[in-house]
Design brief:
single chain, alpha/beta, FAD/NAD(P)-binding domain, 6 helices, about 20% helix, about 35% strand, globular
Length: about 400
């Protein structure tokens, strides 16, 4: 079977990419491993989605449904294969698709990789102690509660103050589970300020900063979790231990871009661990485009959708025979922890995503000949800025800096 564009993954980025490509008149195939399109959105029943994209507040399923409706309207050009796993993607632009219906080899002119991210597991934390039941990643606990309608525990502690961790603190409380604390090893919260207020402060849930779990105890089921304060090197400080009697431990300790399928095919960024790509979504292999959390971990689904749409537009242009010029590398400079994209292509303006290294009251963002002042910066919230291509003309390397003012 042949198609113009193959989209791997039907979350926010994948649906946006497929719609953008189909609107240019191309034939698109979407391969989604779940039973329904929408990805992680389907289990995110809280509101807060769509504020940038639709200018209204939606739940995750409502946000996903908006795009399912568009997929349906373009069904003459978009074929959606759900419950379908892409087993292999080879250098000759052929993909091996596996589903209960059988095995299909698909050849595409361009591939859009939008596989999202996976959660960092408990084993990666190297926490000493027992290995009882009652320890869940935040996403797994969220799915058990919101999709399977199961209560995960009676008394819980949450590790990590990322957005999903704080949202789960509120969700558990609303479902009758007592949340004794949220523990964060950094000296500041790891998620959006609005979630600190709406999910923790509004429900009187304690947030312990500069703290970490140092031991878990329990036989068949978790019984106790011990935490301690940490120093600047994140090493536990003796004498600061505090113990909590809980039967549930929820881990919200970060996401890792899901890129294993592209191993050996494209360049992977060593900082984000995601697919290195340009501002048009093109990877180091010209016919593979990528967007969403498989490239870098974004704050908001609205950004993911917009990046998917942009990648979908340029992947379709590539499939129609257009080729793009040399990319200029982008790298983080002073006070910058992360930048995305990794390369700049002058065919379009640069939408730049930046995370600062530390909280900053006021700083000037310097990118080539572009400067802009930002206030109240924290590492957990991305700076998003659109830079006209004329501000970047003639550069053979772009360094992104934040200078305190």
């Amino acid at each position: 079977m042949k198609t113009d564009v193959l989209v791997i993954g039907a979350g926010a980025a994948g649906m946006g990419a497929a719609i953008a490509a189909a609107k240019r008149g191309l034939n698109v195939v979407i391969a989604e491993r779940d039973e329904i399109t929408g990805g992680i959105l389907n289990q995110c029943i809280h509101n807060g989605f769509g504020l940038h994209y639709f200018r209204e507040e939606l739940t995750g399923p409502e946000y996903a449904e908006r795009f399912r409706e568009q997929l349906e309207k373009l069904s003459d050009r978009i074929k959606v294969f759900t419950d379908c796993h892409v087993l292999k993607l080879s250098e000759d632009r052929k993909a091996l698709l596996v589903s209960p219906k059988g095995i299909l080899e698909l050849e595409a002119k361009a591939v859009l990789y939008t596989s999202g991210a996976r959660e960092r597991p408990f084993g990666s934390l190297m926490i000493p102690g027992d290995r009882p039941s009652g320890i869940f990643t935040a996403g797994v606990a969220q799915r058990l509660m919101n999709i399977d309608n199961r209560k995960v525990g009676h008394r819980a502690l949450i590790v990590g103050s990322g957005d999903i961790g704080m949202i789960m603190a509120r969700r558990l409380t609303l479902e009758g589970t007592e949340v004794v604390a949220v523990v964060e090893r950094l000296p500041y919260p790891g998620g959006l300020l609005r979630n600190v207020i709406q999910c923790l402060k509004d429900f009187n849930i304690p947030l312990y900063l500069s703290s970490t779990v140092i031991e878990v105890k329990g036989r068949e089921r978790l019984e106790e979790v011990v935490i301690a304060n940490v120093d600047e090197q994140f090493k536990p400080i003796p004498g600061t231990e505090r113990s909590f009697k809980v039967d549930t431990l929820i881990l919200s300790v970060g996401l890792i871009p899901q890129v294993e399928m592209l191993d050996g095919l494209v360049q992977i960024d060593r900082r984000t661990k995601g697919v290195a790509c340009s501002n048009i979504g093109q990877s180091s292999r010209e016919w593979i485009f990528a967007a969403g959390n498989c490239t870098a971990i974004f704050d908001l689904v609205d950004y993911v959708t917009k990046e998917g749409e942009r990648a979908g537009e340029y992947a379709s242009r590539y499939a129609m025979g257009e080729r793009f010029s040399q990319n200029v590398p982008i790298s983080p400079g002073e006070n910058v922890m992360l930048t995305f994209p990794n390369f700049y292509n002058a065919v379009d303006d640069l939408t730049l995503y930046v995370r600062c290294k530390k909280p900053m009251e006021k700083a000037m963002l310097k990118v080539g000949n572009f400067e802009k002042i930002f206030e109240d910066l924290i590492p957990s919230e991305m700076i998003v800025v659109k830079i006209p291509n004329q501000k970047l003309s003639g550069l053979d390397r772009i360094v992104v800096e934040l200078k305190e003012v």
